[in-house]
Amino acid sequence: MTSTHPDKDTVRIRRAVRGDLAELIALENRVFSGDRLSARQWNRHLASDTARVLVARSHGMLLGASVVFFRSNSSIARLYSLATVPEARGRGIGERLVAASEQLARRRHCRSIRLEVRRDNSSAQRLYERRGYLRIGERPRYYEDGETALRYGKVLSRTQR
Ligand SMILES: CC(C)(COP(=O)(O)OP(=O)(O)OC[C@H]1O[C@@H](n2cnc3c(N)ncnc32)[C@H](O)[C@@H]1OP(=O)(O)O)[C@@H](O)C(=O)NCCC(=O)NCCS
Q1: Looking at residue 158, what is its pLDDT?
Q2: 8-155 domain in CATH 3.40.630.30?
């Protein structure tokens, strides 16, 4: 087993800390070609009470991350970002990050969670649909390169995992 092909069981998901910052930036630079968070934005989100960054790590390596936003006076959480390093895809890490993000939202008493996904990103759309997300609309020219965003939402039951 190489360190980038870990057993699913060795992958641990936890809240990100400042020590994860360099790897979070590296992950984002590898995975997204546009609409990236700056180092400053990452720093702010790591320290903010209205944002949570989750990391999936194994054997000392960052394999994936998600970012969830909350707003005061809103029961709707927003799954803002999700990424798995290419070498670790197809092992359920993305789905675990989404599940953990939903769990965080439940703990914050959110009743639903929403997200935007590129219209050309069918792999991410499949993941969200598998987890019960429904399409609730779209936003034309939402991304820097002009691609449309599909908007998805999911009602968070108290018990579902
Ligand atoms: C979208 C993304 C986060 C998915 O991450 P991932 O860790 O590969 O996600 P999962 O492993 O949970 O699911 C991916 C696929 O692996 C399959 N899979 C999951 N666990 C598996 C296992 N143990 N054995 C075989 N296949 C498995 C899933 O069924 C899924 O298949 P599908 O693509 O045919 O539907 C990842 O592809 C990524 O980072 N993409 C670029 C950034 C991006 O698009 N982010 C989303 C923005 S909204």
Answers
A1: 76
A2: yes
Higher confidence at residue 146 or residue 161? 146
Spans of all domains in the chain: 8-155
Write down the mean pLDDT value for the chain.
Answer: 93
Residues 103, 161 contacting (CB under 8 angstroms): yes
| 89 pocket-lining for ligand 1 (C-beta < 6 Å) | yes
Query: Which of 54, 67, 81, 91 should be mutated for ligand 1, with most atoms under 8 A from CB?
Result: 91
Strand ranges of the sheet holding 12-15, from the earlier edge strand across to the other edge: 12-15, 51-58, 61-69, 76-84, 112-118, 149-155, 134-139
Q: Is 6 in the pocket of ligand 1 (CB under 6 A)?
A: no
**Mean pLDDT, residues 87-115:** 97
Q: pTM, whole model, 2 decimals?
A: 0.94
Of all protein residues, whose CA lies closest to atom 4 belonging to ligand 1?
A: 94
